[in-house]
Write a structure and sequence with these properties.
Order of helices and strands: EEEEEHEEHHEHHHHEEEHHHHH
Strand content: 15-25%
Oligomer: single chain
Shape: globular
CATH architecture of the largest domain: 2-Layer Sandwich
CATH class of the largest domain: Alpha Beta
Strand order of the largest sheet: 5-4-3-2-1-6-8-7
Structural class: alpha+beta
CATH superfamily of the largest domain: ATPase, nucleotide binding domain
Number of domains: 2
Length: 320
C-alpha cells in the first residue's frame, strides 16, 4: 500500500481536495486525483477527476451539506476509490498566519487557538479553515494535519514594505502589511525558471492573481518584495465583492455620519462592494462582460484601471 498526502482548501461554500503520492517534493505527475464538494449550506455538488481530467465521480445532493459532511464524503470516496493508498497526513491552506507563522506547522490545540485569534483578520476564510480542521480531527483524530499559510511567502519583504505609518506600539503588536495568495505566488515562483529561463526568473517580475479575490505581487530573485493586499485580504485591487484599497476616512464617515455599526461596515466592504457594488449586477466578471449595462462597463473599467495603477506601483517598488 502506497502512502498519500491529502491537500484541503476549505472555503465558505466548498471544500477542494487533491491527493498526492507521498514524496518529498511531489509534482503534478504524483497527483492521484482532485476535486471538490461545493454548494455547502445548500444543495451540494461532489465532483472528482483523475490527473488527466477524466471524471471519476459526479454527484449532486438535494439536502444541505455541512463542512463535516463534505469531508466525510471526500474521505469515504477516497477510501473506496483508492483502496491501495493510505492517507498519512493532511495539509490545509490557511489564509492568515499573522506574525507568528512564517512556514508550515503541525496543527495542535495551541496552533488552533492562534488561528481562531486571527479570524477577525480573515473573516471570509479563517472560520472555514478551522471548520475543516475540526471536522477532520473528529473523523480521523490521529491523522497529522499541517497548516500552510498564504501569508508566509511574503515574510521576505523588507520592513519598509510591510510597515504602516502608525504609532510604533501598534506595529509591534502585529498591525502591519502581511499579504496573501502566498501559496499561489510560491508555486508560480517555483515554475518561473521553466517558463522564462533562470536569469529572467530571478529578475524583477510582477505576478497577478486575478479571481474573485485578486492581488498582485512584486518578485525579485523569486522572493516577495511587495504586494497589494495588506493587514487583511480586503486591501488592494477591487475584487468580486471586496472593496480593495479605501481611504480609512470613508470608514470613519460611515460610522460617525451614517451611523453604521462595525458589523454593517464589515458586510458592506467584504460582501457588497467591488465589482458587485459598482455594477449593481454581479461579482462575476463573465456576467459583466456579457452585459450591456453601463454600470457593468464602469465596473470593468475601474478594475482594469486599478490593475494598471498597481502594476506601476509594484514596478516602482522594484526600482523600475
Amino acid at each position: 500500500m502506497s502512502d498519500a498526502i491529502l491537500i484541503l482548501n476549505a472555503g465558505s461554500s466548498s471544500v477542494k481536495f487533491s491527493l498526492f503520492l507521498a514524496h518529498r517534493q511531489p509534482t503534478r505527475e504524483d497527483l492521484l486525483c482532485e476535486g471538490q464538494c461545493d454548494g455547502l449550506g445548500h444543495a451540494a455538488h461532489f465532483l472528482a477527476k483523475d490527473r488527466g481530467g477524466t471524471v471519476l465521480a459526479d454527484e449532486r445532493f438535494t439536502a444541505k451539506v455541512s463542512h463535516e459532511q463534505a469531508l466525510k464524503k471526500i474521505l469515504d470516496w477516497l477510501e473506496r476509490q483508492l483502496s491501495d493508498h493510505q492517507v498519512i497526513a493532511a495539509g490545509h491552506r490557511i489564509v492568515h498566519g499573522g506574525p507568528r507563522f512564517t512556514g508550515p506547522v503541525r496543527i495542535d490545540e495551541d496552533v488552533k487557538a492562534e488561528l481562531r485569534r486571527l479570524v477577525p483578520l480573515a473573516p471570509l476564510h479563517q472560520p472555514h479553515h478551522l471548520a475543516a480542521i475540526d471536522a477532520l480531527s473528529k473523523l480521523h483524530p490521529h491523522l497529522p494535519q499541517i497548516a500552510c499559510f498564504d501569508t508566509a511567502f511574503h515574510h521576505t519583504q523588507p520592513r519598509v514594505a510591510s510597515t504602516f505609518a502608525l504609532p510604533r506600539h501598534l506595529t509591534d503588536e502585529g498591525i502591519r502589511r502581511y499579504g496573501f495568495h502566498g501559496l499561489s505566488y510560491e508555486y508560480i515562483a517555483s515554475a518561473l525558471p521553466a517558463i522564462l529561463g533562470p536569469k529572467e526568473a530571478d529578475g524583477k517580475v510582477v505576478i497577478a492573481h486575478l479571481g474573485s479575490g485578486a492581488s498582485m505581487c512584486a518578485l525579485q530573485a523569486r522572493r516577495s518584495m511587495a504586494t497589494t493586499m495588506a493587514f487583511t485580504p480586503l486591501d488592494g485591487l477591487p475584487m468580486g465583492q471586496r472593496c480593495g484599497n479605501l481611504d480609512p476616512g470613508v470608514v470613519l464617515y460611515l460610522m460617525q455620519q451614517k451611523g453604521l455599526a462595525a458589523s454593517e461596515i464589515s458586510d458592506l466592504l467584504y460582501k457588497a462592494s467591488g465589482l458587485k457594488g459598482v455594477s449593481g449586477i454581479s461579482d462575476d466578471m463573465r456576467e459583466l462582460l456579457a452585459s450591456r449595462d453601463p454600470h457593468a462597463a464602469e465596473a470593468i473599467e475601474l478594475f482594469v484601471y486599478r490593475c494598471c495603477r498597481e502594476i506601476g506601483s509594484l514596478a516602482a517598488a522594484l526600482g523600475g
